[in-house]
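Objective 1b: paired records.
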Amino acid sequence: MRIVPITELRPGMVLGRTILGGGGQILLRRGVTLTAGYINFLQKYPLSAVYISSGTDVVAEDVISDETRLAAIQGTREMLNQVKRGAGLAVQKANELLLKVIDELLLQDEIVINLVDLRSFDEDLFHHSVNVAILSLVLGIENKYGQQKLKRLAQAALLHDIGRLFSEDENIYSHVNLGVDFLRQSGISPSVLRAILHHHERWDGAGFPNRLRGEEIDELARAIQVANAFDKLSANNRYPMEEVIEYLMAESGRELEPLSVRNFLRCVSFYPVGTMVELNTKERGVVIKANKGFPTRPVVRIERDMFGKRAEPGYTVNLLERPTYFVKRKLEAGMD
């Protein structure tokens, strides 16, 4: 499976991952063979790239199943639209959605974010809220949080931007208090409210609304801050993964808590599955697996040897086991 820019798609290629629309609907399913019509259809959306299967590749798996993610997006959309229409918050519905996500994540022996979030739409509240909740849970599990703490974290992350529903001018300063005021009336617990209230504070004290500093900031909010920053920067391949990771590292100790950044980056790969790379040996191939805790040392299936010839089928290099090997560069538009 490879990540292929939308401009490089050709009829006959097979879609490697299902593409969702902004409302959570399925645009094209995994396994569809692309035609000129399908390619023109996809080019109408703000997609930067898609996953393409090459038959024998490993599948680039999300940290949760497609079914669970789709249900969470659709459920969140329905829940927040009800709030926008003036109905109350369906707290039980939110909890049911989140419990399914938590259960799936806890069943995994090892969680690594090695999938590029390629979206067919500009950022919307529903997808952003779900993604921040999932990413926050990944960090919470890495932090060894218990199940009750994970539930509070997930609820705070899912609802952290609900104030945007009541802020017509998209005022970043007003949506926090508007959201907390609404959620307080909805019976949300004080610990969740505190996390939401603090999610725009900064580790260095330059945030809002209360200019809190360091450990004055709620612990759950610190996790949400990292997840929020990661999602905004990485969604739809807005910035290369190495630049996203570099940003998080640069903001460690300024915007973000150093411990949260360090633990989160243990769960992220510089080179997501499907990334085409060239090694320092001049061999070229595709990333097929990430090594947790070693974001620059993935497993690469070699497809071209140092002379540019086809490599033997199944030849792989685990950079964690080859200390003299490293990724020299990414191959943005695929390989010759």
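Objective 1b, second protein:
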Amino acid sequence: MGILKTKLFKYDRIIPLNYHKKFSHKNIKLGVTKQIIMFESWNTNISYEVIASGIIFILAILLRKLFARVILKQLRNIVKNTQTKIDDKVFNALETPLKFIFIILAFYIITVVLNLTPDINKFFTQLFNSLIVFTIFWSIYRCVEPFSFIINDITDAFGAELTHALKNLFIKGLKIFILLMGLTAFLNEWGINIFALLASLSIAGAAVAFAAKDSLANIFGSFTIIFDKIFKQGDWIMTSEIEGTVEEVGSRATKIRTFSKAVVTIPNATLANSAVINWSRMTSRRIKMRIGLEYRTSPKQVTNIIKNIKTYLQNNSDIETDPSKAVILVHLTEFNESSIDILVYYFTKTTSWQNWMRIKEHNLLKFMEIIEEEGASFAFPSQQIYVEKLPDDLPKMI
């Protein structure tokens, strides 16, 4: 009985004292011996399997590190020495998924070693297949950016200025498509029909579609902006509410950097339905001003001033002189209350605001020289009061 008690204590089975009173010594011995053999066999198998699984997992981690330090390092050196940068981007995209393969293989080998029951084995088989599906679509998703040069060839058909906007739109759409396909494959592995699921959720889907109507309107708004070429990234635009430079045309909204350096996000549907002035589409930039001369300026002086200003503008390389593109107007327009007004109307070749300001400043100084050379002066608001008759007692008042 001393040996029997030791075996029972080892396997956490303690037989009550009254148990010996109910059964014969022979039955107790046979029953306990059978239980000891069963538990001993079970515990021994689990111990070996768990130890083997742990060893397999550790080996997988070590092989993963060895693969990263040796194989992937050599591949990285190879792709760095090539002339193209596409293979570098593809390698960076696939590096992490390739490392994950060792974890999947270790998981599969462990499920085989554990010798699980059919039901549990089926579950882990589905889980293993799901991990494979995840890794495949994860790799494809990460490769979208490196292979975006293919999208460039497609977007070039719509014009080079649309390449960036269309490229971003196609990339986002392709990523969403890959995610949906991956989700479908993942659910299919678990026996879930995505189409039947969507059909069963038709009412909920209608509610979601109603809630997402603004998002859909913004997506169609992005199509309108891009394909109608309303504006693109980098354009200077102005609406009734905002003015600035377009930083990004997204699928939902457009980001505009104002001149105060703040970023404003406007839904695409709002922009598509608004009046948008695209200043970046200017072929040349207008300068319009009025020069007021004093009323004591003679007609000859006015004529010479007009002639000299027009000659200067026509010989200025910064001014657009092609009649088919712009006009140069320098004319006497009206007699104002306190000045003789000359209209000066012309266009600069540059559309850059900084260069435009520089040219305008230089021209204003030149106009001052022309007026001074003719002996004329600029007018300023003034009034003269004529008194027909002074009061008789004015001397007394003074």
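The mean pLDDT is 79. Residues 201-280 form a domain with the SH3 type barrels. fold (CATH 2.30.30.60).
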